[in-house]
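B., you asked whether I could sanity-check this one before it goes into the benchmark set. Here's the sequence:
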Amino acid sequence: MEARVNIRHLRPEQAMLAFPLIREVLAYPTADAWRSLALKLTDRGSRNDISSGIVVAERHGVPRGLFTYELTDGGEPTRHLLVRNFVVMEPVKRKDSARVLFDHMRELAHELACPEINVDLPLVSGWVRNYWDEFTRSEPGIVFRCPN
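And here's what the prediction gave me:
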């Protein structure tokens, strides 16, 4: 039986679980620099605030992929979800993990009432462009963009 890919939003104290993955994306990050960024993204005034965060895709309880996100809110017409640090480090089933992460981006956009998702792909995730249409399948009210 194949293991399912599960999504988890990391809390501030869980940030170091993602450190091995984020090192693949960011140029020589230190543990302290990652903790600082993670705290900025995950430290909320309330538990219901999902305007920024770190999302991890896990298989067998091991992080296989992640992205960070922030809501940019310049008012209703310019409101969008900014996704950064997208990475999947799974040698065999990376498309499965990527698909689950993209599906979760879509769910977040719905929850946050964002008509647009801007995905900033790092070099290590360039392979995603080969499957862009598959991962970002058209859905009314949600547009995916890749500015780089």
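One thing to flag: The mean pLDDT is 87. Otherwise nothing jumped out at me.
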